[in-house]
Description:
Blueprint: E1 4-15, E2 18-29, E3 33-37, H1 44-52, E4 59-64, E5 70-73, H2 87-92, H3 96-99, H4 107-119, H5 135-149, E6 153-157, H6 165-180, E7 184-188, H7 192-198, E8 201-205, E9 209-214, H8 215-218, H9 221-234, H10 269-280
Parallel strand pairs: 3-7, 3-8, 5-6, 6-7
Antiparallel strand pairs: 1-2, 1-4, 8-9
Amino acid sequence: MSRAALSFRDLTLGYGSHPAIHHLNGTVEKGSLTAIVGANGSGKSTLMKGIVGVLRPMAGGVVKMPGMRIAYLPQQSELDRSFPARVVDLVSLGLWPRRGLLGRLTAQDRATVSEALMAVGLEGFEKRALDTLSGGQLQRTLFARVLVQDADLILLDEPFNAIDAKTVGDLIALIKRWHGEDRTVMVVAHDLELVRQNFPETLLLARRTVAWGATATALNAENMLRARRFHEAWEDDAPWCEPDGQIHDHRHDHAHDDHEHGHDHHGHDHHAHTARQRAAS
């Protein structure tokens, strides 16, 4: 029996006539924990929206495991914090796939919400207004909403931005709990050290796949340089911030023949050359 939670088949995503993800192929195994990394504008959030169905493919597609329940947490910047709602209201929204938007919450539902708030360290916050929460408290609230959704696939878009270190640690612990429960988790992240320490697999994007597989391999110096070259071919004024400044420019890059985890790689240098030609035209 296939363990594929998701399969990407020549997936191209974009806005209007402008592709942001090109020809993505590969498989996300059920129960895997994957970080999605890349420079700003590399297509990370676009991929999340394509998986959840907010964005329709320009070409190719995403094949999902039948009956899979999905929980999607967008970036905080996409949320309207001025909406007049309480913590309990936001967390309870996670129950609507089962109850319907107008369904009344049962005593069990209320207990589920309370347990989720306790799990994220917000016991007693039920009646707090959303606009009174700190960034960390809001993110904990959003994780509580994911908890009550009881999803098979969990998509988190930059969940660690603008929150304190204690909250980051607590949320990482929740992500590892989901991973331990054989849920499939994909997380967009910027902190490469945090990714190296906590995520077994990484997809490195620069509008196309640069590397995908075991994190130590995906984020090695050669692949980081390749990502930087691809990205600069598209956006000359947005350099990649190297974590240690130790990447050297080899005069020849090697095509990937790493086929870990059943992933297809389309990160060869002729793509960067083609991208430069497009950028120059």
